[in-house]
Amino acid sequence: MGRKVTLATCSLNQWALDFEGNLTRILKSIEIAKQRGAKYRLGPELEICGYGCADHFYESDTLLHCFQVLKSLLESPLTQDIICDVGMPVMHHNVRYNCRVIFLNKKILLIRPKMLLANYGNNREFRWFSPWSRPRYVEEYFLPRMIQDLTGQTTVPFGDGVLSTKDTCLGSEICAELWNPRSPHVDMGLDGIEIFTNSSASYHELRKADHRVNLIKSATTKSGGIYLFANQKGCDGDRLYYDGCAMIAINGDIVARGAQFSLEDVEVVTATLDLEDVRSYRGERCHPHMEYEHKPYTRIKTDFSLSDCDDRCLPTHQPVEWIFHTPEEEISLGPACWLWDYLRRSGQAGFLLPLSGGVDSSSTACIVYSMCVQICQAVKDGNSQVLEDVQRVVNDSSYRPEDPRELCGHLFTTCYMASENSSEDTCNRAKDLAAQIGSVYIHTNTHTHHLNINIDMAVKGMLGIFSMVTGKWPQFRAKGGSARENLALQNVQARIRMILAYLFAQLCLWAQGKPGGLLVLGSANVDESLTGYFTKYDCSSADINPIGGVSKMDLKCFLQYCVKSFQLTALIGILDAPPTAELEPLTDGKVVQTDEADMGMTYSELSVIGRLRKISKCGPYSMFCKLIHSWKETFSPSQVATKVKHFFRMYSINRHKMTTVTPSYHAENYSPDDNRFDLRPFLYNTQWAWQFRCIDNEVSSSTEQCDFGYVYSHYNPNIQVYDY
Fold first, then answer.
1. Is 114 known to be catalytic?
2. Is 175 labeled as catalytic in the residue annotation?
3. Are the C-beta atoms of 51 and 201 separated by less than 8 Å?
4. Does pTM top 0.90 for this prediction?
5. What is the dihedral of CA 536, 537, 540, 543, to 10 degrees?
6. 205-230 pLDDT, tens per residue?
7. Is 248 helix (H, G, I), strand (E, B) or coil?
């Protein structure tokens, strides 16, 4: 009997409910695995229907179509003579489970349900599935008639079993089970299982990849073994981007890995490994017969070998070094891949972005440019699917993208919407960046390919209607108006820009005699969403937002990266300029309004506060208690108290804005996204009377006595409690 096994895992760009496309990609991965000599192929979690089906998991149609796809897989000649491990939902005893279905040569060997469900962050698996709560227990599952007729089986094993071939033993984990302190691979290793498999739908977050890799290395460092990790990739229909990283490890070393970000719909990773290396490792480091006290796993035996008798000349894979992307590279690659998936699957013809000349909109523009860079590289590398998609998007079957700037001109339209409060500096910065990335640029000056957009006429028209009804004309604060007038005048400008953005997105190509419409891109960062420092239904209201989950500090670092990597020198002036909304009157032609002055704190401070609120689960009092120590070199306790109170007041006044915020790429684990990641009320008592009184008591008990400037211990009717 041989000792070397060739195993395959993969990353697939599956799409929720796209059963036809999902089947095609699964079969393609199996075909590639067989071509490389693999005898076992592992796929991502719920790959048949797609992980992001959400409440469609409740529908009987979803279960039916999954079994129809499974039938097609069983019938396909491609699945013969290779153990196939696919993911799909299965209902057993009227309970819905997230399962692995393992089959070989038209016979189902085992259905393994997920035991530890993901119910944190963006995951809500308990909403749709139940965990299998009987460790090491297997029972019979009655197959649907369509599968019975094909396989000749009436029932198959269902439960926490393992697969025993003639030469080794394999056990399954599913996604979150790896991250759990009671991971099944620990007990499986002690029971002699040599190959662990993990099918995941693990989504991207900045600075997360190393945690995933370290967990997999640790899983086989402790007790030896081979570990296969499969993951979904791409946008399967919502805010998440699944970032691949399929990999194979043995005895604590990564020996094969796939890309974290790519435009390949199907990526297969294979490795040839020596089972004797596992046995030798375990022989020295662990003694299962002394340490394992649980009931043994039920072994489902199959008359099949993963190895060949004559494998002496077959080379084995050696450890590889995993070089992780920097956060700036992750921002450049992840959101760009997500945008491409969204564009090609939406049926639209490109993107439109209101480009203000600031850090946020410039970051969105650079991500689109990065998308074009990746598309051109993929076509150059022979990716026929990307080429086909590009030709369909631009409506030209002969088109072949070679230069990112030229491709940007086909896919990307930017516009600078000037008002009387706009400065020449921001106008020029936006124009220069648009020229460098090659976008179709809509500007106030009229040139051959430019349109004239100035919002002043629309703003005056709106105010004229208001004046006609009320007999009053609001004024900016700089001209003697009240705070409420000042805010309303800023908001009307912002909302008119949103209306114009959608108008041009719908009709811009029509005006040029071209088919299709454009997707409007937003550009509000995660910190602005956290504090509500944006107008509800302004230019932040778009179809999608690639930077809505990224902090301002990370975006600045990303733009510095773009200066070096893409030679976009126009970004230097953008980085040097203070962030400003440019919604209040200029003074001597210069901007006096700045974001940080409006917010009452810096973006750096907001990043700290945002992480404490979400990741550390801090309310006002706990946050204050932490910040008086971490900020002690910069602020006194009373100053910290003022900042904490100011933040929570802004946050609670503006939380309602998160209910309508544009769907954003999820990148930060302190995102305030109200859809399913950060579930909070949106109508607060903004006085926070009890909480702020606790803070005041702490400050009073210290040696420093000072005036806080804010009194929140009783209701003040003059305090604004709702912002628009």
1. yes
2. yes
3. yes
4. yes
5. 140
6. 999 999 999 999 999 998 899 999 99
7. strand
